[in-house]
Every structure is written in C-alpha cells, then in structure tokens.
Specification:
66% of the residues lie in helices and 0% in strands. By secondary structure, it is mostly helical. It has a domain of 203 residues: MetI-like (MetI-like fold, Orthogonal Bundle). α5 packs across α12 and α12 packs antiparallel against α15. The termini are far apart. This is Carbohydrate ABC transporter membrane protein 2, CUT1 family.
Length: 297
C-alpha cells in the first residue's frame, strides 16, 4: 500500500465541499418562508389604497356605476383639478401642516423630558404619577371631549389653530415610549458624562437623545399620523373654513344631495401621500424602536 503524497492529498481535500455546520439546514427558498404568507396579506391590505388611487382618476359616472368599474376607461383628472382649484385647499393644507409639525416638535421635547424624568429620576409620587398618566391612555376621547372644549373656550382658543395645537402638545404615549427606550440604555454612559461635570439636561441632550433616534422617529411618525388624520376634534373646535384642516375641508366636497366622489378620492390621495412618505422614511427606525423599547420594563 503506497502512501499518498501531500500535494495529492491537499488537492483531494480542496475538491470536497465543506460540510454544513451542525444545526443549520440548507434553505430551499432564497427568502424566508414567512414571506409566502406575508406577501398575500400585504397585497390584501394594499387593495383599499389601490382602489383609492384608481378611483381618483375616474369620472363620477364610473365611480357611481353599479357594479363598480374596477379599472378606469380613461384617465380623468377632473377630481384633482377640482380639489387643487379650490381657493381654500392650500390654506387647509397649510393649517394641517402647521398643527401637525407643532404637535410633533412639542411631543419630542416634552416627551423626552418627561420620559427621561420617569426613567432616571426618583421623586416623591413618581410611581403614582406614572401609573396615573398611563391610565389616561385607556380613557376614550369621547369622555374628555366636553371638558377639553370647555377649557379651550375658557382660554379663548375656540375657532383657532390654538384649539387644535394645545391639546396635542404632549401625549402620554410619547412619554411612555421614550421612557421605555431610555430604560434600555446603559447607565454607564450617563455616569461618565456626570463625572465630566455635565448636568442632567446636558446629559439628555448630548448623550441620551443621539442614541434615541429610533424612538424619537417613532414618536414623530405616530404623532404626525394622529394629528394629520384627526377629524373629530377639528369638527368640534373649528367653525370657519379659514381655519379648517385638510380632513375637515374635504368634508365640504360631500353634500346632502350630491357628492363629487372624484374630488373626494383625489383629495384623499393628496392627504394620504404625506403620511405614507413619512412612514416610509422612518420605517427602519420605527421597527427598531418597537423592538428595543420592550427589552426592559
């Protein structure tokens, strides 16, 4: 029996494919199996949005037809021309943008301050105050609607943008979400800043907030979404069309005896577009924040 030379043995070993590590199976699909279930579900949720987009380029006759047309016979932009030609539409869009951006900025500031206080500071009644604040999240808006209206009336803010901004300056959800995210951050980073002589506000601004961008993005997106799409409170607090928000202004396209559905659909497409862009821009940070804020209670 002859011994195999070293070069021949090395060539033979190189030709043999490496064995798969134990515990790992070779994938039959180039993607996760969950995608087979999630892809049809995503298409199902996208059907209303697709129908909204197609209806916005239909004529009123096609929209009112029964059975409804699934595809426009031709592209009709009369709905968009009607909406954009309305003299008050730019004002409504600007009102919604002002209210939403102010609500987002104030929730980021006050939510960060409150969340950091509940996460890192211990003071008399902090637990009771936190539980009380969280309990308010379970109270439906219908129960607080009348007291809120009376407070805004006493402040002289009814029928102004202030009546829409003040109740949305800070929400318990923003404080709670940021508190949960702050709890997941290591204290050693803050202690190092304290040793260097930083105050609590400086630690929050220079150390904590730069690490909390996913949570801040989530608060910003959800606050923008809730404020932008709100119809109930503007319907109660606003009387004149000069102060209408976009959602409230779109209701004027629906009459008691006649509704221009092409304009309603076109207006809703324009309304939904900023929300979709905001969510897509912050999607990665949104998911990262939701997974991180639940690591520590």
């Amino acid at each position: 029996m002859t011994a195999t030379s070293a070069p021949a043995r090395a060539a033979r070993d190189a030709s043999v494919p490496p064995a798969a590590p134990p515990g790992r199976r070779r994938r039959l699909l180039p993607f996760s199996g969950w995608h087979l279930a999630l892809a049809p579900l995503a298409l199902l949720f996208a059907v209303p949005l697709l129908w909204l987009l197609l209806s916005s380029v239909m004529s009123d006759g096609e929209i009112n037809r029964f059975p409804p047309a699934l595809w426009p016979s031709h592209v009709d932009l009369s709905g968009y021309r009607y909406v954009l030609g309305n003299a008050m539409f730019p004002r409504w869009f600007a009102n919604s943008l002002i209210v939403s951006l102010v609500a987002v900025a104030s929730n980021l500031v006050f939510g960060a301050l409150g969340g950091y206080a509940f996460a890192r500071m211990r003071f008399a009644g902090s637990r009771v105050l936190l539980v009380t604040m969280l309990a308010t999240m379970a109270i439906p808006f219908q129960l607080t609607m009348i007291p809120t209206f009376l407070v805004m009336k006493r402040l002289g803010l009814i029928d102004s943008l202030g009546a829409l901004i003040v109740p949305s300056l800070v929400t318990p959800f923003a404080v709670f979400l940021l508190r949960q995210f702050f709890l997941s951050l290591p204290r050693e980073l803050e202690e190092a800043a304290w040793i260097d002589g930083c105050s609590r506000l400086r630690v929050l601004w220079s150390v904590v907030l730069p690490l909390s961008r996913p949570a801040l993005s989530t608060v910003a997106v959800l606050t923008f979404l809730g404020t932008w799409n709100d119809l109930t409170w503007p319907l109660i607090a606003i009387n004149h069309d000069v102060h209408y928000t976009l959602q409230l202004g779109l209701t004027t396209f629906q009459g008691q005896h006649h509704t221009k559905w092409s304009a309603v659909m076109a207006g809703n497409v324009i309304t939904v577009l900023p929300v979709l862009l905001a969510f897509l821009a912050a999607q990665k940070s949104f998911i990262q924040s939701i997974t991180s804020s639940g690591l520590k209670g």
